[in-house]
Amino acid sequence: MMKKILFLIFLFSGFASLAQQNAEPPKRIVVGRDIGQLKGIRISGRIIDEITGEALVGATITVPELDLTRITDTNGFFELVLDRAEYNLTFRYVGYETIDYPITAVGDGRISIRMIQEDFQLDDVVIYGRDPEKNIRSTDMGAVTLSMNTMRELPPFFGEVDIVRSLATLPGVSQVGEASSGLNVRGGGVDQNLIQFGGAPIYNPSHMFGLFTAFNPDVVNDVTLYKAVVPARFGGRSSAILDIIPKAGSVDKWGVDLMAGTYTGKVSVNGPLIKDKVSILGGFRISYINWLLQTLTDPVLNNSNANFYDGNLVISAPISDNNEFMYSYYTSYDDFAFASDTTISWKNTAHSLQWKSKLSEKLSMEALGFYSGYNFGVFNRSGINDFQINSDILDLGGKLFVSYNFSPTNKVTFGGEYKQIEIQPGELIPGEQGEVLPRKVQNEFGREMAGHFQHEFELGEKLGFSYGLRYDFYQYLGARTVRQYAENQPISDGSAIGEINYADGEVIQSYDGLGPRASIRYSFNKSTSIKAGYNKMYQFIHLISNTATIAPFDLWKLSDNYLKPQIADQYSLGFYKNFKGNIFETSIEFYYKDLQNVVEYKDGANLIVRNHIETELVPAQGQAYGAELYIKKNLGRLTGWISYTYSRALRRVITPYEEENINDGEWYASNFDKPNDLTVIGNYKVSTNTSISATVAYSTGRPVTFPEAKFDYSGNSLAYFDNRNQDRMPDFFRIDFAANFKLKGSGKFFEGDWTFSVLNVLGRKNPYSIFFGDAPGLPPQSLRLALLGVPLPSLSYAIKF
Amino acid sequence: MSKNWIYLVFFFLLGCIDPFPVEVPEGEQLLTVEGLIHSGPGPHIIQLSRSATYGSDLQSLIRPVVGATVIVRSDDGEVTFLGEREGVRGAYFTPEGWRAQIGKAYTLYIETPEGTLYSSFPERVESVPEIQSLGIRTVVVPQPGGGPERSGVQIIADINDPADQNNFYFWRLGAANYILETRPDLYTTPAPERNPAPKDCCVVCYRTDIPNNRSLFIAVDDDFNGLSTRIPVGFVEDDGLRFVNKYRVDVNQYSISQDAFRFLRLVKQQAEISGSIFDPPPANIRGNMISLDNPDEVVLGYFMAAGEASKRIYVDQAELTFKQNRAIIPDDCRVVPNATIDPPFDWNPNE
């Protein structure tokens, strides 16, 4: 019945042509003016959403006759070069009805494709990205793209699509706990991932210490995570690359998205600044947790505050078929005080300007310039010795990327990158009445340069190769005073023997390295393949933190004379098989990763506003290995996936000095070592307008250090800890549930969406941490911190004009 | 800078901290040393105990070590024996009148009743600046859930930090006394009768207070080297009795070594752990004691030697900006433990 009503709505709301198209086989269309051209016929086109007019980025165009696949660019454009013949083109896009489009190509021409969302017509959901057979056919390994449409099928977190949490449902990707920022990818630390938004690096991707991800999903087009063989064009971090592509606005008409949730509200507006030429997209999201806090009577909460917002602006100018510019601005801000006179705040800012140009049929180029800033501040207004602490990071850089296609199956890319980094690690500024000395840690300056090359080609249908090389060159620069330490002694304040002053811009230390990347693919048939790969990555910037998650006041530190670059070698092997016409996608991947110069901390390290931080750090070796199993159902009323990972992430600290070794120089589990990790996600479409989804997550509890003994000092009962991470917390288990109801207003102009979700349906108190405390009035004992210890409902309502 | 202010609001909205028994290894009985000798008047105390299993009630008793031989030896060869006193098990006292000398380094030697020998690393007694003056500030701590607020007096010291050395400070509250006021007129006979039986005496007593030094007050002069500065050096909770009239306390300021400071910072860090997601990970708190018989044996605690400066403050109730409701003791003030009708011989609030 519902289907029929919808069908009628379609008929009456101007979709007659499409309905007709569905009713009878599509007619063959003659494209181009016939001037007798036989070869090199250029057919360009653009794919847009039938209803909103927005460009569909990353839609697939397949030409089965030539075994050719093309993908639309960020403005929905594509181009085909064909010989004079008949072709049965197919246009596909995630969540949209596939369009069969038979043509006869007779001359250069343009076609315009309007695609329509599936849920207007079908009860089914499609969650594959870009190209359903990409996992089998491409030589890429460990690259996962999640489109917003896929992420929308997951139970939301606090009523919203959450990019970081969506990625954590994938095999080999995890988080330390329920409110932690950042991702641990294949045994790597959170700082080993490069997170870039529109090409600019982002240092703190979270709001409220990690409860929310600091990217507004409404302005994101898609997210790609490279966890294995990272293409040579990416580098600078040793584990993974998270590439977030902002969405371009419509060049056709104006649209507005509004959402009101339990904790946040957001709005985004997009439309043509100049019709068909320049579009703009602006998004803003703000939390109203602070207002909720003010209404509470509890004095502790009442005296606390928690604000955050993020904002985006994207201007996109597809000035011609061959040239487009895109400017992206991103900012996020947080401040937080917990019943105290101390406020902590942090802010990200990123600008990027990208120019994509198609120089010829085979040659294309991308140039990108970016500026990125991160700042945190601590403000103390206690009335005694008021102070504030500020810290900043500034990145400025550019990238050039050139791609030359010898043929659709033989492509070379190369390019270069330059980035300069300035870090102000901390400055303590006394307040007006403060009797505190101002203190400033020396600024750090560094320069990263890289050149890269990659060649991808296929030998017949079965064999595919990709190999590449990236050369990273890094310089640590003055002005700086560098402390020298006595040889054959541990680096400590006590072993300092002198200082060397370096002038402005003088090179203090250089590091370089060659990072080969290679992968090979063998396809047994169209639905089965095996791939193997290797890559080496270098990292010159390190997160100096002694907490398990990214804290806003954690410092980033450049490699210097004492802190060497982190180096990762990764070997991967995978089997891929799709069943039933790509409805089921399965894979099993194995990896082994070797890490050098990972930063570890001496016991009780003091890291805040400190010169000579090298005295608190020790270099560690890392070792990670695992097997990842992934089964995904792409299509049907029930969609979803199961991902299971068995992995280990280990660390070892052996130094020439026995007293600096950790756990006597034995391998030990890192803070995020969770051997068994299982996620099951299901989304069931009950009717056209209603869907329900659930996530079940299980993992081994993370490592923890239990005390060897209890002793008394100064009236406090204290725990004596010896070896790190020798014990485990209880296993983690959580079920989330969500229901989504779509309300159709007046058809094509208005669309409403109610989402009701419950996090932690079972109300299980999964420990975030177990600690040992001697609180007054209680015996010294082990205590559990559970963050989401109760079922947490939230409701959100989104509308679209 | 302490991180314990960083809780998440969401703790209270959604999350919680609760006791969670875990299986901990049976604790070793490690020798624990707590002691500070200094240049001020003694006696100075070294306390010896044995560690126990964490969290387990039966095995968690920390036992004092009695019958040990405890010696402090200076770098110029002076040897001082510390003796036990009746009624205080595990505490060893320096002889009457003994003081540590500024500039000398001291080493602690212990022989346990089992005959095992232990030694500290030498600790040098550094000079310490005087406390210029003391002041107070009322502190009010709201309670989660809206319960009655706790409050108290934070004691703030003015010091002139010497510019020519890196100073590590440690403060402890010493002897304290206050004027205790009770209500003998409200006395009732014991239960079950509870008949009014007002007493004529006594309303005002002087009570000796034992300051709680559980919260550690330490500082390093990185931020105020060579400056005069104001620093919180102690806290006295308002229990409804202490700040009814006048309260006095001695503040002792010690110049400790850099290693002792690091040790106390770790103790403080662990003692203040709050269960926030940014709590530092457990740290191995290493002291300066070693076993002379078995170098691999772990000895807990720290032996400190320091210069001492002391100053006294009288706090009048009118100086507090927030006070707890007065606690009522319906009896003769003399029946309250540690209270007498006579003021201490040196009670002089107007000094």
TrEMBL record, chain A:
| InterPro entries, per database record | Beta-barrel_TonB_sf, CarboxyPept-like_regulatory, Plug_dom, Plug_dom_sf, TonB-dep_rcpt-like
Gene3D superfamilies documented for this protein? Carboxypeptidase-like, regulatory domain (2.60.40.1120), TonB-dependent receptor, beta-barrel domain (2.40.170.20), TonB-dependent receptor, plug domain (2.170.130.10)
**Domain TonB-dependent receptor plug, first and last residues per copy:** 161-239
UniProt main location, coarse: membrane
**Signal peptide residues on this chain, from the entry's feature table:** 1-19
Q: How does it sit in the membrane?
A: Multi-pass membrane protein
Keywords, A to Z, come to: Cell outer membrane, Membrane, Receptor, Signal, Transmembrane, Transmembrane beta strand, Transport
Q: Where in the cell is it found?
A: Cell outer membrane
* Protein family (similarity comment): Belongs to the TonB-dependent receptor family.
What name is this protein filed under? TonB-dependent receptor
- Origin organism of this chain? Algoriphagus taiwanensis
From TrEMBL, chain B:
- Which Pfam families has this protein been placed in? DUF4249
Say which domain of life the source belongs to. Bacteria
Which named protein is this?
DUF4249 domain-containing protein
InterPro entries from the UniProt entry: DUF4249
Source organism per entry reads Algoriphagus taiwanensis
